[in-house]
Amino acid sequence: MIDIHPFIIFLAAIFTSNILLSNFLGMCSFLSISREVEASLGLGMAVVFVTVLTAAVNYVVYYQILVPFEIVYLQYIIFIIVIAATVQLTEIFIERFSPALYYSLGIFLPLITVNCAIFGVALFMIIRKYTFMQTIGFAAGSGIGWLLAIMALAGIRQRIKEKMVPAGLQGAGITLIITGIMALAFVGFSGSVIIQ
Amino acid sequence: MTKIDIFREAAFKENSVWRQVLGICSALAVTNFMRNSLIMGLGVMFSLALSGFTISLIRNHTPRSVRMMVQTLIIASWVIIVDLFLKAYIPDASKQLGPYVGLIITNCILMGRAEAFAAKNTPLDSMVDGIGAGFGYTFVLLIISLFREVLGFGSVFGFTFLGDWWPRWSIMAMAPSAFFMLSILFWYIHQKYYIQVKK
Description:
The structure holds two protein chains of two kinds.
Chain A: H1 6-14, H2 27-33, H3 37-66, H4 75-97, H5 99-105, H6 109-112, H7 116-127, H8 132-160, H9 172-187
Chain B: H1 3-13, H2 24-29, H3 34-57, H4 67-89, H5 91-97, H6 108-118, H7 123-153, E1 155-156, E2 159-160, H8 175-194
Antiparallel strand pairs in B: 1-2
């Protein structure tokens, strides 16, 4: 157990240990969706929402069910089921109560089940032994950090669309180089807060 | 198609990493040391081969609507075995890899191969395909980690062979270099094999 205020963890998860730029989680959808700013914003919002919700549910399930019954080795299966079920429920709720939001967010929700950032947050919270409030702070920070990274990349990619890029680098190659430079910028924050 | 063709196609021609840009998360995260890369690669190969086999075995009995969930659960079961094996026999590597062993479940390569190959082919072919895709993935991981470990630590598989005259590039141990190394590899391979030269 580490004694850091949840808000500090929240800030650290956004900047010093950004889930995408320093832990490389959520790369697949990051690379494929980041072509337009609007789509990235929609996906990013969905990720923030689902990350916080599933982290809270997973925390309760892990410490109230898995640990007392000594079936901790089933954590991967349980976490993935919780995430899939939460995503499905969220989809139904949003469709029922806010069709407008559903149309802007809906298509991204199924994609999120296989987003490693969400599963990664659940695993990190167990490995680093966070308390409940710390978990919430970490999950919210990770989601927002991911949103920030994908928005920044989408903005840059829209600008280089018309520019000349060496043929072999087109697509994934140049995107990875941009991400690397962004990660380099975020390295500047490192060391100011240590959360692991 | 013979088994060897399937293997070669999955490992090199349609390599998951450089051709389909899947499984990037772990390809970047565990490549700071060659030993981690090798263990991770073997773990992925094992779960790919066996989950391909299992998914293909029950492919005609799985209703389409719950297909994804069934595949994910099968993959998760094999990954748990990998995780328990590492925890029991190579505990220090399991600690260093941390959450990335569990994250094999959400590794897009496994889902991709399950959907693209195992759901349509016979169990043995799917297993060969899984071994091929896992081999291609391990191959990429080892190349990247070879450069990162030699430049960053002056060693190979933890064995230091460059003396003090070599300045250790601390950037190679950090996150940004993983992005740069992977994109350089992409560049080289696409330039050499996939682009038709215009004359």
